């Protein structure tokens, strides 16, 4: 398999590892969209959200739980953070190995286009 993230899991490609255990690994995103931007991925290859099987539910829950641990470890869990799972090309997914974006370190308005609205949301 020619998967970039599987190669990171296998140690073939270096990454700045922030957290790892027997099920997931987390590393800094090389194109950060916030002061803190990490990717949390399962060690098991799952291509997209659409490919999560019934027996993967606990693994996906562990992925989200790991993101919370990392936010706490990095010191912004109390202020808040954003997690994002993109799915397929229209959803913005560019690497087809399930990955959760963990973004923090600054206030993030919702909706993202709020700054363009004339009236406050």
Automatic annotation (TrEMBL):
Alphabetized SUPFAM superfamilies for the sequence: HIT-like
Domain HIT residue range list: 4-113
Record motif Histidine triad motif, residues: 97-101
Gene3D superfamilies (UniProt xref): HIT-like
Top-level taxonomic group: Bacteria
InterPro entries, sorted: Histidine_triad_CS, Histidine_triad_HIT, HIT-like, HIT-like_sf
PROSITE patterns for this protein: HIT_1, HIT_2
The name this protein goes by in its record: Histidine triad nucleotide-binding protein
Organism of provenance: Marinobacterium zhoushanense
């Amino acid at each position: 398999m020619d998967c970039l993230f599987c190669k990171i899991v296998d140690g073939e490609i270096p990454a700045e590892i922030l957290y790892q255990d027997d099920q997931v690994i987390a590393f800094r995103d090389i194109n950060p969209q916030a002061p803190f931007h990490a990717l949390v991925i399962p060690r098991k290859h799952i291509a997209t959200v659409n490919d999560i099987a019934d027996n993967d539910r606990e693994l996906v829950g562990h992925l989200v739980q790991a993101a919370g641990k990392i936010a706490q470890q990095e010191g912004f869990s109390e202020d808040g953070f954003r997690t994002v799972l993109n799915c397929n090309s229209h959803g913005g997914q560019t690497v087809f190995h399930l990955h959760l974006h963990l973004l923090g370190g600054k206030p993030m308005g919702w909706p993202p286009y709020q700054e363009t609205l004339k009236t406050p949301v």
